[in-house]
# Entry
Amino acid sequence: MSAFFRVAWHVMRKDLTVEVRSKEVLLTTLFFAVSVVLVFSFAIVREGRAPDDVAAGILWVAISFSGTLAMGRTFERERYNDTLRALILAPAERPAIYTGKLLGLLLLLGLVEIVLVPLIGLLFNAPILAYPGMLAALLLLGTLGFAAVGTLFAAMLVRVRSRDTLLPVLLYPITIPVMIAGVRGTAALFQAAPDESMARFWIALLIFWDAIFVTLALWTFEPVMTE
Amino acid sequence: MNSDFERLAVVDVARHYGRRKALSQINFTCASGEIVGLLGPNGAGKSTLLNILATLLAPSIGRVEYGERTVADGGAEVRARIGMLGHDLFLYPELTARENLSFFAQLYGLSDIPTIVRAALERAGLADRGDDFVSGFSRGMRQRVALERALLHEPRLILLDEPFTGLDQASASALVARLRERQRAGCMVVVATHDLDVADGLLTRAIYLKNGRIVGTDTDSRGLADRYRRAINNSGGDKPFLSADLSAEALRAKVEAPGAKVEGLSKS
# Structure
C-alpha cells in the first residue's frame, strides 16, 4: 500500500511542478471560471440583489466548466510527448498513477475555488462564512466526485481526435447526481434561512456518490489504459 | 519465480482494429544478447508490434512470452524488466533532465536515485547540463536523455522505435555503442527502424515487415539494403517471400527444445 501512495505522491508532485513552471492550466482555468461568474453577475444581479439559489448554481457551473477545461489540458500535456505511455509502462500500480493525477487536479481546482467562492460571496451577497466547514465539505466532496470521473474519461480520451468534444458529452450526464447534490447542498447554506440538516443530507449523498465514482474509476483505470 | 527472463517469444500474434489487420501471424523469438531489427516501410506494423511487446497494446490473437511468463501472469513484474524508447521521447519538457530521470527512477521504485541519475547523466554526456530544462535541448541531447531514461532500471528487454531519427552521425554512433554495451550485458534489444545504413552491422537479426506480416528474416547483418528491398518488393499478394520458416509450428518446435537458439530456425 505504501508503494501505491508513493507513486501517487510522485505523479502529483510532478504535475504540480510542471504547473508551477508553466502556470498554463491554473491561469486558463481561473480566467475562465472568473469570467463565467462575472458574466452571470452582470446578467442576473439587479440593484445588488440576485434571485434566490442562483449563487449556488453559478458557483457549480463555474466549477464544472473550468474543471472540464483543466482535465483536458492536464492530459493534453501527457499526450504531447507521449509521456502517458511512459507512465503506464512503469511497473507501478496503474490506479496509483490515476490517484496521483486526480490529486493534482483536485489541488488545482481547490486553488480556483479559493478565488471563486469569495467572488460569489461578493457579487451575489452569498453568506459564504455562515457555515464555512459545511461549505468546504460540499466543495471538496463535489469536486472529488466530478474530478474522479473526469480524470478517468480524460485519460481514456487522450488519444481520441475529438476528445475536447467528447469529454463534456460523456462527463456531464454521468456526474449529474454530484452536481445536483453540490448545487442543492450549497443552496441550502446560501438561502436567507440556512437549512443545516438539508445541507448535511446532500453531503451524505455526495459521500455515497464519491465512494461509487472513485471505486469504479480505480477499478476501471487499468483495463481502459490497456488498449 | 524470478521476474527476469532469457528469451522473448512472439507466438501467432495478430492485432486488428475493427476490420483492418495491423498485424497478422507474427512469430519470432529474441534471445539474450540479440539485437533484432524490425524493418519495413511506413505502416508495416513495426510500432504496433513494439507496443504489443511493451505490454501497451494487447494482441487480438496470440501471445507474447517473456521467458515463462505472459503479461497476464505478471504485468507489473514484466513491465519492470522492459525499457522503451518511443518515437516521441517520453520526457517532460518543463522538467530538467535530472528531474525527468529522477521522476521515472521513483516510478520504477529504484533506490539511491541521486547516484543512478548522476551516472545516467554522465553516460548521456550531459553531466553539466543536468539542471537545464529538457525544452532547451537539441533533438540529439533529448534522445540521449530519453535513452538513459529507458535504461535507468537496467531492463532485460529494450524496445526502440525509430531511435535514429533526427540524430547526427556522432549521436547515432553513440547510440549504437550504448546498444552494443547493453547487448554485451545480455539484454534483448528490439529496434524498429527504416534507417538501413545505421542498422547495417548492428543487428544480429533482421525481420522484414510489410502490411502487418513478416515477409522475410535475415541473420546476416551486413548488406541489409539489397535483401530488404528484395524481401519487401517480392512480397506482393498472399504468398510472402520468406528467407526462414517462421510458421508457428516451426517456432514452437524450436523454442520448446532445450537450449533453443534463434539461429536454429529451419531454412525454407
